[in-house]
Structures are given as structure tokens and as C-alpha cells.
Amino acid sequence: MYLPIFENTPLTDLNTLRLPARAARYAEIHSAEQLIKLVQRGDLAGQRVVVLGGGSNVVLQGDLDAFVLHVRVPGRVLVDELDDAWIVRAGAGERWQDFVSWTVAQGWGGLENLSLIPGTVGAAPIQNIGAYGVEVADRFFSLEAVDLKSGHVLSFDKASCQFAYRDSLFKQPEASGRFVITSVSFRLPKAWQPVTGYADVARELALQQIDSPSAQDIERVVTAIRTRKLPDPALLPNAGSFFKNPVVSAEQFQRLLAQWPQLPHHPQQDGSVKLAAGWLIEQAGWKGQRLGPVGMYERQALVLVNHGGATGDDVLRLQRLVIEAVHSKFGVTLEREPVLLARV
User: Fold this and answer.
1) Active-site pick, 18, 166, 220, 226
2) Whole-angstrom Cα Rg for the chain
3) Is 62 left (phi over 0), alpha (psi -120 to 50) or beta?
4) CA 59 to CA 296: how far, in whole Å?
5) Based on the domain organization, do 63 and 81 belong to the same domain?
6) How many CB atoms lie within 10 A of CB 299?
7) What's the pLDDT tens digit per position in 295-338?
8) 166 is catalytic
9) Which of 28, 45, 71 is the last residue of a domain?
10) What is the CATH number of the domain that holds 15?
11) What's the domain range around 67?
12) 41 is an active site residue
């Protein structure tokens, strides 16, 4: 199977922040077999490997002296029907929103709260994407990935993925650049129940006078909310939510609540409390503010946008200032959500 390999390839159009960068070597991957062939031929030997999906969750800091593998594996299929669930698989290169809409249209609820999250199916478990009370880990069944050391196709179940808040095994140093996800399977429950605990979702359902929402209703509501709040990367380059919602101890939360009674928060099962990073950034004075070509979005302070001509260094400067401002005001340290792909 022939696989073209390109050199000095521009990546600006392949990341949603539209940051300038070039890859020393580049190839589009449309199947696991192509990856296996690369390993067998020794094309990846001794090279830094960077895996790129939809480019919606990365910050590119200059040219990459690396072999960039752009995963474009297609496909979506019902794998199995169990007594209590459907098992549905998608190729890692499938656009996430297209896959979500497809499952909902088939009557397989479970992913609708994750509507309109940018990126690809293969990137979803790496980041353990989540929104409005649902994370990928809640619906995950298994995935297949090619081990670039051995050239073997490996299967990972939920436990082996080591999911955590916006984290997984695949973000850890020992796995990053070693495993390339080629397909992901999800377990969608037949005894589906709507997840409407987040205020924005409940408010929108009430406005539309929907008392018993279907999965289609939730998908439509979440899409409407995100469309109002978040800029289209095609019109205003961005990487979605730029900071993770910080999780603090119950004790720290009580101290913060005493000073800011209106602080948005979500209690966690272990007793900790998740705070709204966007609210913290807004209170720290950065909503709608610019630093040269970059800024925090005027409608949602959690989103860092490129107003034109920004570099990865511009993004990291703004990141540092926002983190410092929030920490100075609240004593809470924000963490970047997108992965930094830096020159070496």
C-alpha cells in the first residue's frame, strides 16, 4: 500500500488556532495497515513522532523537527447489540460532531451532551473530552491503536486507558508518540436517561418548554448553547476551551465561596469541587481583552482566540498572564487544556 511522505509541510491550515508551523516530514494515515507498513520499513526509526487529528486541541510553537502523522482513518459502524447497550465503532479520523449526530439519528443516545466539540473521534479519548455532565470515559468501550515500537495493533479497554479529568494514558510521556489510535468503540445504553444537571442545559430546555427531553432534544439544545457562546474556528481561529476547569478541595472551596458567594461550582464524587475557569478568568479581568494578535473571547472568557497573525509564542504569553491573574485573585492555578507541540 503506497503512502506518500512529504517534507517541510505547512501545518497552519491543519490546526484550528491557525498558528504557523511546518513539519519536517508528514504523512496522512488512512488505515492501520499504513502505520504498520511505516514501522516495518523503518520510516519512523530514530525520529520524533507527532500525531495530529483535527488540530483543534493543540498549540503549535514553531516548526516541528518531527514526523507528523495526520490520522484520517474513516468509518462508523454498529459493532454489536447487547441486551442493555449498543456497541458503536468509528474510525479515528471521523469528525467528532458527525459521529455524534449519526449516533443520535440512529436512536442511540449517550453522546448528545458532547455535541459540537471540535476535533476527531481518535482525539476524544486522549483528552477524555467532556461537556455538560458527560465525559468520553462514561460511554467508552474500547479502542485500537498501533504500537509504533512493535508495529502491532493493540486493544485498550477502559481501565487500561487510565481516564482522568481531561487526561488519559495517551497524554503521558511513556505513551505520547508511541501509540496511534485508529478506531474507538463506545457503549451506548439502551436504558438512556437525559443528563440535564448543568444550569445552561436546564435553562435552555425550560425556555423551549421541553419537560421530557429526547437525545435529539439534548443535542439540539447543547448545539444552540455552544453556538451562542463559542466562536466558529473557521471564522475566528481558536482551540475551544483553553483552560481546564480547576478542581479544588472542599476546604479551599468554602474559603472562596465565603468571599465570592456567586462562584459557579460543581461538587465531585470524592468531595472536591470543580470551578468554572471561564468565570474565574472573567472576574480576573481578561474577558474580551487582547494581547497583540491574541485575546480571550468576548462572549466566553475560557476561549483563547487568534485575531490574526499570532504565533505559538503569542499564545503562551497570554496563557501565562491569565494564569497569573487568576492565581493572584483567587489562589487557584489554571492549567492549559490543549497539548503544546513545541520545537526542540
Assistant:
1) 166
2) 20
3) left
4) 15
5) no
6) 11
7) 999 999 999 999 999 999 999 999 999 999 999 999 999 999 99
8) yes
9) 71
10) 3.30.43.10
11) 6-71
12) no
